[in-house]
Design goal:
By secondary structure, the protein is an alpha/beta fold. It folds into 2 domains: 4-169, 3-Layer(aba) Sandwich (Rossmann fold), CATH 3.40.50.720; 177-271, ProC C-terminal domain-like (ProC C-terminal domain-like fold, Orthogonal Bundle). The protein has 12 helices and 8 strands. It has helices at residues 11-22, 42-52, 60-64, 76-86, 105-112, 144-155, 168-177, 179-196, 201-221, 226-233, 239-249, 252-274; strands at 4-7, 35-38, 55-57, 69-72, 95-98, 117-122, 132-138, 158-162. Strands 3-2-1-4-5-6-7-8 form an 8-stranded mixed beta sheet, with helices on both faces. α8 crosses α9. The protein is elongated and about 70 Å long.
Amino acid sequence: MANITFIGAGNMASSIIGGLLAQDTASNSYQAQQITASDPNLEALAALNTKFGIQTEVDNNQACLNADIIVLAVKPQVLKAVAQRLQSVIKPQALVISIAAGINGDSLSQWLGNSIAIVRCMPNTPALVGQGATGLFANRHVTEPQKQQAEALLNAVGTSIWLDSEELIDSVTAVSGSGPAYFFLLMEAMIEAGVKQGLSVEQAQQLTLQTAAGAATLAQQSDVDVAELRRRVTSPGGTTEQAILSFEKAGLRKIVDTAMVACADRSKTMAVELS
């Protein structure tokens, strides 16, 4: 099994490490001694060592000397400086996985070395609880076994899909990368509306969160699409129909479309700014 180094010891790195160590399949299981995290924050490193028993290092270059897979889990604003310093120590056959938003593959290749295998991905915050959704794009140097390694790594904290073009990373950002915030906003509005109708904050929150979780689970496990599920719960002349008609009259679909276009456009702009 490959040796993995995480550059950055934040929440996303911690979540992925926890997911990897929790796997019990023979083909994907990792041991703590195969995983290293590097970060200047000694407190963060100590927390990971205590929780998972992994190796820790404050020197990124030292941490990457024997790494087969390097996960770049630092803020986009510092990635250029971090990546450029790694170029001299990355093994030629190593796989680099970047979870930094807004940094395109061309920039990563320039900073790390033009022949390095790079997978760019866009995870989302539910990965922190093992329910992430991630889009992946591999450059031409990534082998099939390396694609399988990258997929297994991100699947340790949820589910992932492969993209045919890097430009679709912006679409993934609009759908799932930023998507949790859309649902949080809707839940926030539902809780507020429930309180206005007489429920306590605790009651409205409990009912809203469970309804959101239940709807998502039902959609995942159903053999019909979400439009059909929505139709099935919307009885003619019933209460749900009145709510749906109100949403449609207010232009909910257009609002969502406009918001997601704005999100994808900002993702493209950030790529230019950060690269």
